[in-house]
Amino acid sequence: MSARELVVLGTASQVPTRHRNHNGYLLRWDGEGLLFDPGEGTQRQMLRAGVAAHDLNRICVTHFHGDHALGLPGVIQRVNLDRVPHEVTAHYPLSGQHFFERLRHSTAYRETVGITEAPVADDGVLATTPAYTLEARRLSHPVESFGYRLVEPDGRRMLPERLAEHGIEGPDVGVLHREGALRGVSLDDVSEVRRGQRFAFVMDTRLCEGVDALAEDCDLLVIESTFLDGDHKLASDHGHLTAGQAGRVAKEAGVRHLVLTHFSQRYSDPAAFEEEARAAGFDGELTVAHDLVRVPVPKRR
């Protein structure tokens, strides 16, 4: 199993269908799990996908419409039932604090785990760990909504031919990497920058600056495409994107793998979403998501 992958738990917008559950997306990032927008039925979808409560380290909610948040009570209660031993942090729009509290305490249960609440008030960094920085950007929707972006720190790639030129081998390679210099040879002399991987999660929104900022140079972009281009006015009126708009965003941002999701039940042919994203000029890897699909984060450049 890939150490970095997206597990899609649900792909429907507004209402579930016979084939699509409400939203739910788990990003596995090395030893951590980030659950995005747990809609109704997420706990059952986790079971079907082999995702345990112990896999969760963060819960990130973009906004408080039901298809993105009604699964919170079940997920939080499962975290408590299973006595998850590590900290679980919840991010959500600060303006929806009262919704989060109602959902968290919607029924009686025994709290054994302290969920750490870290609401989002504005654009900026939410958390910094050795493995990534988690950021939020404001989106454009009838209720306040934020998208999320995860950025891995840049690293170094050692270049064997340059190491050989300088006679550095064995344990000395590790010493040079840790200390930055060895016997007059600098790290820059024998290595190059290895750009960190980038992931973004963009849900219910019109086109706006936040969408572009989140998508920039992403290795994996998960983005809503609720409507097809013929319904672009309906999309704008309700604060959503079309498949063509999502494709153009991904093309202009230099995205490597595009994942389209959050589909209106009015459409029966998933292939139409890929066709419109391709017609908009996106020529990278593309997945029209369906429930329980797994999408690996692309290998480093």
Report what the structure shows.
This protein starts with a strand and ends in a 5-residue tail after the last strand. The strands form four sheets. A seven-stranded mixed beta sheet has the order 6-5-4-3-2-1-18. The chain has a seven-stranded mixed beta sheet with strand order 7-8-9-14-15-16-17. The mean pLDDT is 96. The radius of gyration is 21 Å and the shape is globular. β3, α1 (42-49) and β4 form a beta-alpha-beta unit. The chain has 301 residues and is an alpha/beta fold. It is built from eleven helices and 18 strands. The chain has helices spanning 42-49, 66-69, 72-81, 97-104, 160-165, 171-179, 187-190, 209-215, 232-238, 243-253, 271-279, and strands spanning 4-10, 24-29, 32-36, 58-60, 89-91, 116-117, 124-128, 133-138, 146-151, 155-158, 181-182, 185-186, 191-194, 198-202, 220-224, 257-261, 285-288, 294-296.
Could you say which overall geometry the principal axes of the C-alpha atoms support?
A: globular
Radius of gyration: 21 Å
Strand order of the largest sheet: 6-5-4-3-2-1-18
Report the average pLDDT across residues.
96
- SS-derived structural category: alpha/beta
Tell me about the biggest sheet? 7 strands, mixed
Distance between the termini: 20 Å
* Count, helices: 11
Query: In percent terms, what proportion of residues is strand?
Result: 25-35%
Helix content class: 25-40%
Pick out the low-confidence regions: none
What is the H/E order?
Answer: EEEHEHHEHEEEEEHHEEHEEHEHHEHEE
User: How many β-strand stretches?
Assistant: 18
